[in-house]
Write the structure tokens for this entry.
Amino acid sequence: MNLVTPMEIQECNEDSLIASARAGDVSAFKTIYELHINRVYGLCLRLCADKSLAEDAAQEVFIQLWNKLDNFDGKSKFSTWLHSVTSNVTISYIRKQRGWWQRMFDIEASDIDERSADLITDLSDLEKMIYRLPERARWVFVLHAIEGYRHEQIAETLDIAVGTSKVQFHRARTMIEEWMGNE
Amino acid sequence: MSKQDRLTRQINELAREKTPQRDLWQGVEHAITQGSTKVETNWRPQLAIAASLLLVVLVGYMGYQSGINTQSSIIAEQMSEQYLKQREELLVSFQDKPATTENWQQQLDDLDRAAAAIKSALQEDPKNPALLHMLKQVYEQQLKLIERVHAPSWQKI
């Protein structure tokens, strides 16, 4: 006899929530939000390295999710698909929020991030170091080392070459290991 | 334990979830039930800014047409005066509202330095319309920055 696992029950429940939300049920969508907000916000915060920006980005993720639910084809787990939506929306949101001067000259926001890291409390040592990384190196490190993305996926998400993603990851890892050595 | 091993261990131990400090659902719900992310906006200051910028552009265009050698520096000065006035008015209107970003003053200072550099370049090359255009963009960016950090879209919801 095959027993249904709690995970399968949750997935089944989530399928019905998604179906209801697709049909316009806001309370079902709120349940989806409550199930995933902490995971989504965690990724937003690591990509943004700024609490306020991450909160705005997380809201943007769920607003876009409401409009994109029909795009979820069920071939992957919903959480996997949602993380992909989260990283795409957040990167795009950060780019939109950049100052004109930064966009014009493609300046990386590393010094800003370093200050922000000091302002966010309850961070582990590793998180503090991640927030100190230059922006693009941080994005690649978070997506590859923490979220488990392949460099090909990262290249597509960030619109960069696969080789660039690998170089940025190496750069991030080297910087973090150096900082660890100085502790 | 090597640094690589320590880093790998710390990555594995990292909590993937974080709880936002403010309730984000309210803004999400408002946006999806209104069917648009468009938020209520006080149009009066923005109209004033748009009208002023239009005036500046018009004055700039007329000056350019007249072929006066010193036109760009005069326009740049007029633009700067106009901008400083608008900036002052915006800062006064937002003086009771907290800024959402800690480093906005730093960003404003950076843009100030950019504007100063462009004005300096204009003195060397007063007939260069591209520099004038850049100056106008920097000023617009500063006004947007002040507005954005004091009245972010999600606070207006």
In short: Chain A is about 80% helix and 0% strand. Residues 52 and 110 of chain A are 17 Å apart (CA to CA). The first helix of chain A runs from residue 6 to 22.
